Every structure is written in structure tokens, then in C-alpha cells.
Amino acid sequence: MSAGETIVDEASKPSGAKRAAVRVSPALATGLTALVLLLLWLAASSLQWVSPVFLPHPTKVLAAVSRLLTQGYVDGTLWEHAAASLSRVFTALAFSVLVAVPVGLAIATSPLGRGVLDPLIEFIRPLPPLAYLPLIIIWFGIGEPSKVLVIALAMVAPIAISTAAGVRTASQNQVNAARSFGASRLDVLLHVQLPSAIPAILTGIRIALGAGWSTLVAAELVAASRGLGFMIQSAAQFLVTDIVIVGIFVISALAFAFEALLRVVERRFVRWSGRY
Amino acid sequence: MTELRLNNVSLSYSRRDGFGPVRSTEVLRRVSLSLAPGEFVAVIGRSGSGKTSLLNLAAGFVAPSEGRVTRAGEAITGPGADRAVVFQDDALYPWLSARDNVAFPLRLAGVGRIERRERAGELLGQVGLANEADRQIWELSGGQRQRVGIARALAARPDFLLMDEPLGALDAMTRERMQELLLGVWQVSGAGVLLITHSVEEALFLGTRVVVLAPHPGRIVLDRRFGFSQRFADGEAARVLKAAPDFIAAREELITAIYADETVAA
Ligand SMILES: Nc1ncnc2c1ncn2[C@@H]1O[C@H](COP(=O)(O)OP(=O)(O)OP(=O)(O)O)[C@@H](O)[C@H]1O
Ligand SMILES: [Mg+2]
Which domain holds residue A179? Predict the structure, then answer.
């Protein structure tokens, strides 16, 4: 090591140490934020800043959790409500992936596909689910299919649009390479354009799941007898605020868990994304 | 007559800036070039002289505006497995390992998984990447990626190998080794090679024929046979060859041809 380097080393030390003293890890910041919010909540309800009807005490909410787990609320335990909602969201996700990925591929690779499908996707994309919910009930009744359909409709556009954008990330030369090795258009689609689109598709699924969870409550407005959205609405009608809060936390936790899961999938299976 | 031939080929691109009129730029004008199996044609020319465009025509990625591109007398209407391409950017598939990239043409040809992985391994060995076979593309250096690209093109067992500056990104030392490797690969495969390069020395050392393209519009200003690669094959050392008086004389002649219109253009 040269003398010059040593000098630089020492010169940079004090400022480095100073910065380290102020630096806070993101995880710690997150934890502190949660703690502060919890303390605020505790203070607000203990000191009766707001009426317990609006904001129940945290211990009351905890009690509601255990009540929900054992006795349940409106004919179902927390597990049953969560399972009903989860199965709706994921049935909807499965359907919308099956529809939206081919739609996105068609939009990106065929002028006919773009002409026919792009306007349709752009048509449903900005629609609020509550706007088309009544029509879907009129058409398909109040059964399970309507609820799944409402959620799926909200998921189709983000997945289709991400897929189409992802296909375009395959470079002209990557496509030409395959063609020069004798690939048909279908080969190019399946072996070059679809794999290139996978990271974008995963991003689309993450956005779609967000849309799916927000649509869930609307979908369960309709003659549901199970589900987190249904549970929240039933509780809200009787001002059972603790159940409402539990419902909100459970939806948020589930959404967070799947988001985290998708990120793990992304890191494991599309490690190449962004590195090439 | 299985040769690949460009017959009086012109290529124009039309473009439109905003709402302005459609302009057409002539990129190649009346280019004629043939490539026979077993031949090694090196194409050289300044940046923008139309080298990649020429390769795109030969590969069948673009159709000529005028003239014909033929293979054994028959018009070429698109790319095909008889003409494999190594791209200026490597154009590999980053979701596949090095081995699976090389196996890709075999997969398209319907070769079974075990066999194609084995053959891909052999080809990677040929380009000196036996130990990197199961690495991911993004774990490889630029030069290693280009070699994967070459192995992938070889996997298709093409009659013609069309290479667009495959050694452009390499340092001088690696480049010299890779030139020798290219000669070896060419001799083993027996394919006709079209190699685009920026390096006059490389063109002379590798080509059985060297073609010089001049820009605006791209046209061939020189097309001549050289015997240096044969002399290397006959055992003359690369460095000695490149320092030989006749090599240097040929090099100066090519440089003159490449920059002939420089004063006119400026
Ligand atoms: N798709 C395209 N559309 C319009 N013009 C193009 C297109 N591709 C190339 N050109 C133009 O054609 C000319 C020749 O380009 P080409 O890529 O063939 O040059 P090149 O000799 O390969 O250059 P380099 O050595 O820099 O790779 C350039 O002036 C370029 O701007
Ligand atoms: Mg080029």
C-alpha cells in the first residue's frame, strides 16, 4: 500500500464515522414508525381523545382477534373469512393471468391483436369496479362467479399492459438471432419474447394483486356470506369498530405477505433481470 | 453452386421526422458480393458505411430495395438455419445459462435435451469456455459472451456464418487469441464466413478475401484475395506474419482504400 493511500484513508475516516453515527437502518426506521403509531393509538384511546366507538382500545382489538379465531363473526371464523377472500382473489388472479398474458402477447406481436384488444384493455383499465359491478350482477347473478369476475376484471388490464411492455424488451437482435436459427414466429414468441416478458409480467401481477385486494371489498358487497370484505361491512353496519380494524389489518397483512412472496420469486427465478 | 450472393443490391431506409416529408436514405448502392462455402470474406469500412446493413441483407433480416439476394441461385426471402449470425451486441438470452444459449438452435431443430446439452458443452469447449458452461450470461465478461455467441451460431451447423464485429469489444491480447480461434473454428466447420470488422489487421489476417465498403451510400470499393490466413494455417507465426513486409504493404493499401473519399467528404 502506498503512502498516498494511507493519507486518503485517514482523511476520510472522521467524516465516515460522523455519517455512520446519524445513519439509521431502514428496518429500524420501520420498527420505530410502527412503535410510534401504536403508542399514539394507545394514548388516543386510553386518554379518550376519541370515542371508543370510533377508535377501540388496542387490547379490545386483540380481544376481537381471539374472538374471531374461536367464535367467529357473522357465521364464520377469521380463518373462514380469510380463506373465502383468498380463494376469490387467487381464482381471479389465475383467470386474469390466463387471459391477460396471451392478450398482452397478442397486443405486442400482432397488428390485428393490437387493433382489436388494445382499445378493449384501455376501455376497462380506468373503470372503477363499483361502476360495472351492478351490470355484472344483472348479467351473471349474485353468485360466486360474479364476485370473481369483478376482481378478475380489475386485474386483467395491468397484467396485459405489463406483458405487452415486457415483450418489447426483447431486442430486435435477440429476435433475429432466433429467426436465423430457424425459429418460427411461434418459437420466437414462446422462447424469446415470453421469457423476456417474465419480469414485467411479475410486476404486472404485483400491481394486479393490489387492484384485486381493493376490489375485494366491493365484490363482497354483493350477497356474500363469507369473506373479509363482507366481515368488515357487516361489522361497520353495527359500528363494531374492533372487527373492522382487525379486517383491515388482515387484508393488509395478506397483501404484504404475497407481495413479499412475489419478490422472493422474482429474486430466485429472474435473477438475470436488470443485470444484462 | 451453393454460394450466397448479393446481386446489384441497393438498400434504402425511409424515415419521417415529426410531420415532415418522408425522406429516403440510401444506405447501400448496387452492391454485388458472393460468398462461397469454405471462403472467409472480411468486410471492412468506416462506421456507418453499411456493414451491418450488408449482413442484415445476407441474413435475410431485411429485403433489398433493389437487386436480389440469392442462395444457390434461389431468392432468399427471410432468415434461415443455413445462415447463422453472430451479432454486434451479443444478443444472447440472459434467462438461459451459457450452455442452454448454445443449445438453443439445437432445441429448435428438435434435438433431445441430453444430446443437445452435451453438444453445447463440446462447442463451448471449442471456444475455450468449458469451465463456464453452466454460468449465467450476466456472470460472463464481454469477451466470454461473444464466444458464447459464436458457439451458439456454430451449433446450428450453418453453411454460412455471418459475424458482425464479434471481436470488437476485446482487448488486444484476447483479440489475437480469438482471431486464431476463429480461424480454427472456420477450418473445422467448413462454413463460408462473412466477418465484419473495424480492424484492417484482423481483416487481412483472417480473410481469404477482403472487401472494403465506402460510405454515403455504402458501396464496395475494393474486393481482393489475400493469402495470409493460409500462411498462418501452414505454420507461420501470427506475430511474424503481421510484421511481414507484404502484410504491412497490404495493410497500408487497405487503409488508403478505406479513407480514399475522406478528403472529398470533408
Ligand atoms: N433501421 C435503420 N433505419 C434507418 N437508417 C438506418 C437503419 N439502420 C442503419 N441505418 C443507417 O444506415 C447507415 C449504415 O448503418 P450500418 O449499421 O449498416 O453501419 P455499420 O457500417 O455497421 O456501422 P458500425 O461500424 O458503426 O456498426 C447508417 O448511416 C445508419 O444511420
Ligand atoms: Mg455495424
Answer: 62-273
